[in-house]
Amino acid sequence: MRTTVVVIGAGHAGLAMSRCLTERSVDHLVLERGEVANSWRTERWDSLRLLTPNWQSRLPGYGYTGSDPDGYRSMLETVRYIEGYARAIEAPVHIRTRVVSVRASTGGYTVFTDRGIWDCEAVVVATGACNIPNVPKLAGAVPGSVRTLTPFQYKRPGELDSGGELDSGGVLVVGASATGVQVAEEIRRSGREVTLSVGEHVRVPRMYRERDIQWWMDASGVLGESYEQVDKVDRARDLPSLQLMGSDDRRNVDLNALTDQGVQVVGRLAGIRDGSAQFSGSLANMATLADLKMNRLLDHIDEWAEETGVADEVPPPHRFEPTRIEERPRLSLDLIDGSITTIVWATGFRPDHSWLDVPVFDRRGRIRHDGGVVDAPGLYLIGMPMLRTRRSSLIDGAGDDARVLSAHLMDMLDRSSARHTRVAV
299: Cβ–Cβ under 8 A, 6 or more apart, which residues? Predict the structure, then answer.
């Protein structure tokens, strides 16, 4: 079978690319291993909501039309939204089609799947950044009596009970980005004792001067900052996700809020030895750095608000209480005495490109690319953090990236066609 372009992944990024290719009359198909929005459907916990307001789910030719633009979608609502988008744009999606291998071939690429083989001139990788939980190697030293879960396995606090009986033991959540703080809060609200291990993190308020922090970052240009404007783009692409959650009361989930709820905050998990978890002593420094960066962001927002006149429409600037850290945070935690019965590894994710049999990986195993244009003719990447701008990792960023990359892809096809025409003549 043959087509011009194969898009791999039918999430929001792959569908945005499909829409842009359709607008350019480029023959293509979208391959999806499961159903449309498969990751949103199968790899999230029950209570999770989007970190961005509903109005911010803007895709090419599609936007929010409901009555709650400032609310936050549940996962079921997100799946329905993306499914609705696929139907609206009539995306040529082949569901339940798993890609086994992509290889370079004469004139482009050959895509091998469990339901057939396609030859094409270009491939767009839209499989996302969060395919595999990034569990540290030290997890192998966890005592066998302690249950361990990744965010893909965690669904709700009640499922932490083992053997059908109430397990009242404590939970250690490792990682304090968006996933870690949300899971820690939910488990703590269920009545369990929770310890949160904190490394580098990005603290921001949910609301500032009566507007959502995402509104401020969008309007003031923070989310539009290009990868070409950033001094260390690799560093920017590795930044932890914001300490945010979507909730009806728009509450904060920073370390202060969690401490007030009874979560014990400790430093980065540095090792596990003789059944004891060892924590770094750098917690206070990490918190101070996060506070500093948050205040720099708020300074930028305030300056922009003054320059544009928005400051006249909102309450005056204010600052938040510095992160409160115990004078002597604990440096170890016994994992054998029964006080901790579960560990949740909220330590990030990594993409799965094991099926991509093209030599485009750097020494860290990541695809080499320039703003989504991969280091191989006709190969493109979309839906990754800081791909082209800071909003690239959001649903809201897929459209802009797809427009630029589809234009580049179209130019590549035109140049290829022109070369073939000259050869034929």
Answer: none
Shared domain check, 138 and 127: no
* Pair (306, 221) in one structural domain: yes
C-alpha to C-alpha distances, 326 to 196, 210, 279, 319, nearest whole angstrom: 14, 30, 14, 21
**What is the bridge-based pairing of β-strands 5-8 and 28-31?**
parallel
CA-based nearest residue to 105, from 84, 87, 119, 86? 119
Domain that holds residue 385: 5-131+351-424
The pLDDT tens digits of the residues spanning 207-216 come to 999 999 999 9
Strand partners, 119: 2, 110
The residues that bridge with 171 in the sheet, in sequence order, are 194, 342
pLDDT tens digit sequence for 79-131? 999 999 999 999 999 999 999 999 999 999 999 999 999 999 999 999 999 99
Paired residues of 29 in beta bridges? 6
Residue 43 to residue 133: CA distance in whole angstroms? 10
Kindly list the distances between the CA atom of residue 67 and the CA atoms of 55, 64, 211, in Å, as whole numbers in the listed order.
10, 9, 18
On whether both 260 and 320 belong to a single domain, the answer is: yes
Give buried/exposed letters for 200-238 (b at 16+ CB in 10 A, else e): ebbbbbbebbebbbbbbbbbbebbbeebeeeeeeeeebe
